[in-house]
Hints:
The chain is of the alpha/beta class. Helix content is 45%, strand content 15%. The N and C termini lie close together (11 Å).
Amino acid sequence: MISHDKACKILGKYLSRHxxxxxxxxxxxxxxxxxxxxxxxxxxxxxxxxxxxxxxxxPVAGKVRIVVVLNSGYKDLDVDVEGQRTMVxxxxxxxxxxxxxxxxxxxxxxxxxxxxxxxxxxxxxAAAEFYLRENRPFGTIVTLDADSIVEANYFRALEExxxxxxxxxxxxxxEHPLHGDEFSDEVxxxxxxxxxxxxYMRQAHRWTGFIYPFHxxxxxxxxxxxxxxxAGGVPCKQAGEDFYFLQKLIPLxxxxxxxxxxxxxxxxxxxxxxxGTGASVxxxxxxxxxxxxxxxxxxxxxxxxxxxIKDELYGLSSDQYESWTYxxxxxxxxxxxxxxxxxxxxxxxxxxxxxxxxxxxxxxxxNAFRVVKYLNYVHKYFFEKSxxxxxxxxxxxxxxxxxxxxxxxxELLDCYRQYEKANPLFIP
Length: 428
């Protein structure tokens, strides 16, 4: 575990490179958890989310600080700044004495950085600076979306999980609502298929032997301040900032899953970004996409074949690579030979003192980014996407899950949910 002094130095170095530009958090004592909520024109959802947080059980020790990051893009000339301020001011009235609020404002963000990533970074950087100021580099920072609600034990579950000093960061268990009156039947149908796709994809990664098989959901990440800094902070991306951040955070180790509470993200339609939950649901509802399709299980089978024999690469010379690939299925062989993979392998092999070291460092090359590129490649040239129910049902059977008699996407999704809740991962 990192010492207190070293952790403070890491935080200080990070903040010297990323100085706060949109204000800092007010002084406070006994803050146990800081929750950062980006808010871009969220008057329809943010007040409900804040009321939901106010209704949660308080931490046993300490208070909660909620940081709302109001933001807009440089072209958002129609943003009612005073209206946004008033909306938040009204939402945070009558807060319990164990909950405090900060509101940061970032209006007119440049096109290059405007998006959830920039707003999330502004809030999380400010939280990191607060903990450094308070001489508490191991303080807890959580990110939540303005349209998400949580279970009543949310803060207690976070507090309990981080009470173990060795733990650095975690994903929080999530479930999208599948029924209700807030959205159309088409939206609930789409989100059911999309969440099944997410859980199938995550478990397929795990089944192949990939060592970092985690979800990437911006509304369900918790980290200590020093771990946030070590990972380089959240990138200023318009979308996918959660995925990029986690790929830096997870390999640092001591990363796990908090499955004793639930975050409930909204299934609402959205055109703000080109991929992710909102984009998938919107495309499905409008008939431009099909949330009922996912990756072909054969693509994961072939990837598993590579991971099963990856250690053999350590003992091979560069001129043996191509002949070695004949042990693999054609699609994965094609990807390896056409993606510069072996050049990257040679770089890490030069720094490995043993096969055991290579076996772990292999996934620095075949990381989550490369898995995505591989899946895109083989589905472009070799495979058709599969109905998510068929692919997820087949994988469930191979995993030994009781899926034989499940007849609907919702039943199968529940099977995956129960499995994930009962089998949290932890990367030491």
